[in-house]
Amino acid sequence: MCEVAVIGGGLAGLSAARHAARLGRLVTLFESSPMFGGSVATVNEVDGLSVPGKFSGQDLAIHLLQDARKAAVQIVESGIAKLELGARLTLTDEQSRTHHPDAIVVASGASLRKLGVPGEDEFVGRGVSRCATCDGGFFRGQDVVVTGGGDSAVQEALVLAKTVRNVIMICRSPLKAKRDYVDRIAARENVRFVWDSEITEILGDAGVTGVRIRHVNSGAVSDIECAGLFPFIGGTPNTQFVPSSLLATTGHIATNPDLATPDARVLAVGAVRAGYGGNIVEAMAEGVRAAEAVACRFKC
């Protein structure tokens, strides 16, 4: 039986693992985090699903994980430290165990990019958060800052606006989020924008008390008082274990339209892949496509 390794337990990886197992492949899913679903696990409400009702990212992840287990997917609670190409594919997990699958689907996603400013690491858990659903309640009745202009930033701001006194969005450029999100955030009376600006320092003592910002055009510096900061300025692909021969110049994995990398035995889906559109439904669909491609190409 053909053995398929899926690296990553986000929605793309879970979809690939479940579908490949249903197609009769022996599937092992590697995931080091106890929270399946990847970055989507903290999304309060997933848009674009073709089924009625409202679902959180965690709801979807739990459903896909249960289905994967029913389809006999083997779950290994470890990340991958190294992927080696050669006559035989070799994966070394974080416990130094080796695996030799016939095909690999990389769905390791991306990690939220850090601001890289003073105070960022110091105030994690003391005002700096990347999960409005998890931590928004701690800031009830207070002012918070969200920085970023994509879907994730606006989604977080929408969740926070229901609980906090005011949300201040600091954006370097116009919003890049979906039109629906932009319209919804514009309708919130307790959300205001600070344009053409970036955070240069996080201020505080026992916890966050404000942020220092710089206008990107004039260079003018000013401080904004807040009790919390939610930075969402994009992601960095989780490809530290991937051979450089499979990477694009951006650090993402390079694929053709069929999701195959320069080594046809390795496919990539979701946020780790160059050219990924950023849509949750698209990530799940890519997982299914990769599973079908593996079933078609590898008749072992």
UniProtKB/TrEMBL annotation:
Gene3D superfamilies: FAD/NAD(P)-binding domain
Domain FAD/NAD(P)-binding: from-to ranges: 3-287
Keywords from the UniProt entry: Flavoprotein, Oxidoreductase
One Gene Ontology molecular-function label: oxidoreductase activity
Keyword Oxidoreductase: yes
Domain of life: Bacteria
A matching Pfam family: Pyr_redox_2
PANTHER family cross-referenced by the UniProt entry: THIOREDOXIN REDUCTASE 1-RELATED-RELATED (PTHR48105)
Protein known as: Thioredoxin reductase
